[in-house]
Design brief:
The chain has 119 residues and is an alpha+beta fold. It contains three helices and five strands, in the order H-E-E-H-H-E-E-E. It has a five-stranded antiparallel sheet.
Length: 119
């Protein structure tokens, strides 16, 4: 079990406290490069719940994402939205997805998102 990067935990905590979904971040986890924007867990859970509720086959799973998450201690996961797994010059999925990544699994990270621009 690796020790989570304290600075990355602080970044995640700030996103959680500010309820912002605009923090661009790129991480390496399990050899995969994931780039996107961080969202507070509650916002991420709500969006996943909405996506599942709109599905005829997956609607039954929607309710499990609306349950409140335990808030004991610092954040343990990063919650990405409009995120992509980068493979070569391709981002999967093309439109961006919803990913939850354990902070302890992150081996490298940088501020910024390869697909995000304020311009």
């Amino acid at each position: 079990m690796s020790k989570p990067d304290a600075l990355l935990v602080d970044v995640a905590a700030l996103v959680e406290s500010g309820h912002s979904n605009q923090m661009p971040l790129t991480v390496v986890a399990g050899g995969a490069v994931i780039t996107g924007r961080l969202a507070p867990e509650a916002v991420w859970r709500q969006r996943v719940s909405e996506i599942l509720a709109d599905s005829a086959r997956l609607g039954d799973f929607s309710a499990m994402f609306t349950a409140a998450a335990a808030k004991d201690g610092p954040p343990t996961h990063l919650h990405f939205h409009v995120a992509r797994i980068l493979q070569g010059t391709v981002g999967i999925p093309e439109t961006g997805g919803m990913y939850r990544v354990a902070i302890e699994d992150v081996s490298a990270w940088t501020m910024g998102d390869f697909s995000y621009s304020d311009h």
